[in-house]
Amino acid sequence: MSQNTAILTTRPNLTRPRGLAKVFYDVKKSLTTPTTYLVFAGIFLWLFTWWLLCEGLKVDRFDKLPGPITVAKEFFSVQPFQGISLFTDIYYEHIWVSCRRVAIAFGVATGIGVPLGLFMGWSKRFRDYSFPILETLRPIPILAWVPLAILMFPGFEAPVIFLATLASLFVTTLNTMLGVDSIDDAYFRAAGCLGSSNWDIFKNVVVPGALPFIFTGLQISIGVAWFSLVAAEMVSGDLGLGYLIVDAYVNSVTVPMVIGMITLGFVGWVTSVMVRMLGNWLMQWHVRALALQGR
Predict the structure, then answer these.
(1) Is 188 helix (H, G, I), strand (E, B) or coil?
(2) Domain residue ranges in the chain
(3) How many whole angstroms separate alpha carbon 89 and alpha carbon 109?
(4) Beta strand segments in the chain, E
(5) Which CATH architecture has domain 89-292?
């Protein structure tokens, strides 16, 4: 009994910080690694190169583009000369409209693509019917769908959401199907030997086994939804970051165009991080399983 007590008292504390304490712990830990400093060094190098080409040396063709100082002055101006800054309501309206469209498109593509990919990977007969159709439609560029989308759906909102959903759907479906294909056949045989029904196999083998590929596909899917949305907003839109970029180009105001591009990159990065964090949270069991295997 005393030996067990000694073992328990000498065992290291395996509890980890949670909630806000975990955030501060992660930030403090990141400052001890070179990764954080390399990130900031990369951002500084990019900004310096941009300034050098556009405002420092004024290299030919680049001197027609606004540099980082010009963009920053306009972006933080209370009364922007070219109409877009942090202090204008229309700027946030463009962001909100694009984020709403991406959220709807991403949700619809996930709701359709994940079950479709699961069934395509699980049932050979279902795949034989559906996969040729998917592979025929997938190579068609999103811009080629624009005229049909405008004819099929009224207004500005529905065509844009349809185009973003379509592009995101293909990525989600194929990655989910590949996730099912990656499951070892031994799991299916073991479940069958234990008397599991088809529904039990689908629920307990197919879905968990495909989850790593599903969340990888969702991270790609959210990025695809963004750039297809912008392409759609440039052709059929009244608001949104894509519309802001093309409207600035048409009116020959370059600073709002650059502001829209930078905002698009930042917002797209944030949404991708959110999907990745959700996937990591839901996939903690997979990380623990890999740790037990020494991988």
Answers:
(1) helix
(2) 20-65, 89-292
(3) 30
(4) none
(5) Orthogonal Bundle (1.10)
